[in-house]
Amino acid sequence: MAGLAKVVLTDYVWESLEVEKQTLAGLGELTALQTKTPAEFLAQAADCDALLNTYAGPITAADMAQMPKCKIIARYGIGVDTIDLDAATAVGIIVTNNPTYCIEEVAEHTMALLLSAARKITFYDRQVRAGNWAVPPGKPIQRLSGSTLGLVGFGNIARQVAIRAAAFGMKVMFSDPFVKDGQFDAPGQKMELMDMLKVSDFVSVHPPLTPQTRKSINDDAFNAMKPNAVIINCARGPVIDTDALVRALDAKKIAGAALDTTDPEPLPNPHPLRGRENVIINPHAAWYSEQAMVGLQAGAPGEVRRVLSGEWPINVVNKAVKGKSRAGL
Q1: Which of 284, 303, 305, 306 is the catalytic position?
Q2: Which structural domain range is residue 39 located in?
Q3: Domain identity same for 112 and 192
Q4: Percent helix, strand, coil in the chain (nearest 5)?
Q5: Co-location of 42 and 157 in the same domain
Q6: What is d(CA 253, CA 213) in angstroms, rounded to the nearest whole number?
Q7: Domain containing 238 — which CATH number?
Q8: Considering 104, 108, 265, 271, which one is annotated as catalytic?
Q9: Is 206 a catalytic residue?
């Protein structure tokens, strides 16, 4: 295998690596690991030319210093909050992500959680499983049509949620400092965050996880929300301050929560969010479908192949690295 670039895969959640091997054929030799932290993969990655990354992290400047040949860190998913982008840029490592592979899935899951919370689906299912066949325990339930959905962030996924929510007759509002009112052909009226929270019956969070958005849904946000409101999170767990959410639920500041992502993740057992009839928790499953798996698995290796072939990759997150990358691109 002499002459081939060394490509290290830090961790993966699928059964076969044939996609990776076929994508890298003739250019890179794959070293596949199952690790959770850089301390576990750096011994193998010290001489790597490229790093494929799913969840293992965080990958810091100190970690990058131990990978002097690494030209690219390619994430399989959308978020890059576990990679120090400034550090990568400083040392010439290209960082890529996979921003489109599960847009429909996450939008669908968001609506599924919203509908389950609104119609008390999971609550009634537990009641029936326990031998209770009655409507009154789930009261009150309000009509979804005519209610207001507030979207925190108005990126690709949030706009797909907006389209689906509008089809149910919901009024859609959004708060996003980087999007102008009417910028996209999607339902939604722009509002300031706190103003939007005050009028929303459902609040769904969709921003990337950054220092600015971490725990941005906090006590102040919950205090602004309506007592009948439900918060939904299919983005990143730390966008919501977990302790503040528990306080809001205890004080009945809001009516419930539907969470596909939590902070921490997985959620410990026991935990104050577990076991509540007005809280739905899923195990970070919104991204998944068989179709999404195809796009997920192909994206990152494809970016590595481009860099190893001397091409500029498609989904570069740290665009300032161009012209000074280790790959000479």
Answers
A1: 284
A2: 5-101+290-321
A3: yes
A4: 35, 15, 50
A5: no
A6: 21
A7: 3.40.50.720
A8: 265
A9: no
Catalytic residue among 109, 236, 305, 306: 236
Q: How confident is the model at residue 27 (pLDDT cuts 50, 70, 90)?
A: very high
Q: What is the pLDDT of residues 164-208, one digit of tens each?
A: 999 999 999 999 999 999 999 999 999 999 999 999 999 999 999
For residue 202, which phi and psi values (nearest 5 degrees)?
-135, 140
Residue 236 annotated to the active site: yes
Do 49 and 30 contact (CB within 8 A), yes or no? no
88, 64 Cβ separation under 8 angstroms:
yes
**CA–CA separation, 150 and 156 (whole Å):** 15
151, 204 contact by CB (below 8 A): yes
Instruction: Please name the helix (run of DSSP H) or strand (run of DSSP E) that holds residue 204, with its range, or none.
Output: strand 202-205
Residue type, 269: N
Distance of CA 262 to the CA centre of its chain: 11
What CA–CA distance (Å, rounded) separates 329 from 325? 6
- What is the side-by-side strand order in the sheet with 256-259? 189-190, 171-175, 148-152, 202-205, 230-233, 256-259, 279-281
List the structure tokens of 126.
Answer: 């537990």
Measured CA to CA, the distance from residue 140 to residue 153 in angstroms comes to: 29
- CA–centroid distance for 223 within its chain: 25
pLDDT tens per residue across span 83-106: 999 999 999 999 999 999 999 999
pTM of the model: 0.91
Token pair recorded at residue 57: 């992290």
187 belongs to a structural domain: yes
Q: 23 in a domain, yes or no?
A: yes
SS3 (DSSP) at 231: strand
Please, are residues 288 and 264 in contact by the beta-carbon 8 Å criterion? no
Instruction: Find tokens 């089809």 and name the residue.
Output: 167
109 an active-site residue? no
38 within a domain of the structure (yes/no) = yes
- At 144 the three-state DSSP class reads coil
Please identify which residue in the block is written with the tokens 């929510």. 165
